[in-house]
Amino acid sequence: MKRWLSKNLIKIYAFLAFVYLFIPIAYTMAFSFNDAGKSNLTWRGFTFKNWQNPCGAPEVCTALGNSLKIGFIATLIATALGTMIAFALGRHRFRGRSTVNLLIFLPMATPEIVLGASLLAMFLNLGINPGFWPTVIAHVMFCISFVVVTVKARIASLDPKLEEAAMDLYATEVETFRRVTLPLVMPGIFGAALLAFSLSFDDFIITNFNSGTLTTFPKFVYISSARGIPAQANVIGSSMFLIALAIVLVGQFVSSRKNRV
Amino acid sequence: MVDAAASTKGDLHLTNLVKAFGDFRAVDDLSLVIPEGSFFALLGPSGCGKTTTLRMIAGLEEPTSGKISIGNTDITYAKPYARPVNTVFQNYALFPHLSIFENVAFGLRRRGIKDVKEAVTKVLALVELGHLAERKPVQLSGGQQQRIAVARAIVNRPALLLLDEPLGALDLKLRRQMQIELKWIQTEVGLTFVHVTHDQEEAMTMADTIAVMNEGRIEQMGSPVELYESPRTVFVANFLGQSNLVKGKVEGASGSDLQVSVHGNRIVVPSARNFAKDNSDKSVLIGIRPEKISIEHPEANTLGGGVITDISFVGVSTQFQIQMPWGQELSVFEQNDGGASHLQKGDTVALSWKPEFTFALDGTADVDAGTSVNPDEI
């Protein structure tokens, strides 16, 4: 018994860790099939009807649409700006570079509740009413730091000799960037964009302060929790999880294919 | 081939080249001419400025002062992509996201050549890796990557091919093979090769002309035989192979020979092989390569009273360490042809050699210059 335990302890531990990580997700998925009534708290029987009609609950798809729109726009802007900052920090030596490096970390370290409240106060002082665009601006702001950190790590791992080799082989600065640097940094940029999107899609605190009457998906779930979360929310949550999983799997498949040819 | 690169042909001239990093002069007033079509080696320990020199020729580093030109074209400040020079980088720097074919085609495509297939296929055949064209660099072995790096450079037919420690990452056996192969490729394509290395054996095997660099300057330049047989400085004598250097005093000259007193022994040095500058106390270092010394056969130059302190057998030869009466240890290499097989540790022997093998160097120089440098410590 003791020998068996010492041999298999690591497996048992790993299994328990995964159970701990995945129980909430499994729960969410299971309850997306619940034949729920007013609230989705107790199991009342299996049904496909939530999945067949994910927009069945009032407001749920409007909220989802808003979240996707904000997510896409914020991701696009944050990724573009963040990538440029990352290149500046990773490839050039300039005065104040270390200060900028530090400042980039600040938004990540600041409590969201403080950021949200401050942003709202700022928007109101500027005479801008909370809503769609203030939310986008707020999201861009907190996503940039994560993009910079992710892309910078990728740039740091890039051998500068490759760029020298490209220049040596008659590529101008622009061509070198387009043909060598960018393709090699691309996985980092792509990863940063995924991260930015999931951060934006997920955000509740800052969004709650700055979105005014606009409902995003997290806001919808929060508000409806008072009177019972509809099973459709579980359907959407589960779908997002599955889509993210699919993207990761496809990404791995493509990169392994690329390396094998 | 329509070729902007080929329009500038000719010898490479480096004129009073200086590269300073702050107070440190990595390259210090370097001037040399590398003839078109030659295989030229810049040899020196790490930090001697050879790589910096190479990077300035490639355009990856801007000289502090001085001039670089190929033929009559001044390229001192030309961008790397605007000069007819290609480089084989130390760790090859193949583009990991491109196939072997596209790696090799990279330079041609950037120069606007549409039909690259023939040129690429031909150069891949030259390095015998045509079958790997569709692979990615990571799927190739070190030796194969090395050859692709060479192919990627020579396909552009540059006026000058620079090789930055190209064999440093390969194991010994492969390195030997690649040395012969590179030399063959150079003869085949007829381009000027400038090869930077810290490995004296590599430089001697491949290059027609070697420039030995030390502390940003050229110590001596010449053919491998010239450098080995007639080193002009202590650094060269020690860095290229091994030398026995013994302090002596010039007593006088007779005919074309110099008489030198070495710890009481009379040693003859041909005047033509005296590379020492005149100095007031007439001190010189007399030099003799270990394999030129014979323990058994008496010759005109003899130093007696040595005691064998160590014998190591290395296959083709046996290496003896011999302590001389004045305390200095000298090395002797004897061919394993049966002549010296009876010698044992503790035996007292006399060292003899022909006068024409002797050379004389500046007596005030540091005897150990160039020895403490371990070429494999990079």
Molecular structure report:
- The complex is a heterodimer of chains A (261) and B (378).
- By secondary structure, chain A is mainly α.
- Chain A has eleven helices and no strands.
- In chain A, helix 3 packs antiparallel against helix 8, helix 3 packs across helix 10 and helix 6 packs across helix 8.
- Chain B folds into two domains: 225 residues, P-loop containing nucleotide triphosphate hydrolases (Rossmann fold, 3-Layer(aba) Sandwich); 121 residues, OB fold (Dihydrolipoamide Acetyltransferase, E2P) (Beta Barrel).
- In chain B, 21% of the residues lie in helices and 34% in strands.
- Chain B is built from eight helices and 19 strands.
- In chain B, the strands form four sheets. A six-stranded mixed sheet of chain B has the order 6-7-8-3-9-10, with helices on both faces. A five-stranded antiparallel sheet of chain B has the order 13-12-11-14-19, with no helix packed on it. Chain B has a four-stranded antiparallel sheet with strand order 2-1-4-5, with helices on one face.
- Chain B is elongated and about 75 Å long.
Number of strands of chain B: 19
Number of separate helices of chain B: 8
What topology, given as strand order, has the largest sheet of chain B? 6-7-8-3-9-10
Mean pLDDT of chain A: 89
DSSP helical segment count of chain A = 11
The residue fraction in helices of chain B comes out at 10-25%
Structural class category of chain B: alpha+beta
Number of domains of chain B: 2
**Beta-strand residue percentage of chain B:** 25-35%
**Structural Rg of chain A:** 23 Å
CATH superfamily of chain A: MetI-like
Q: Pairing-aware structural class of the strands and helices of chain A?
A: mainly alpha
Q: Span between N and C termini of chain A?
A: 48 Å
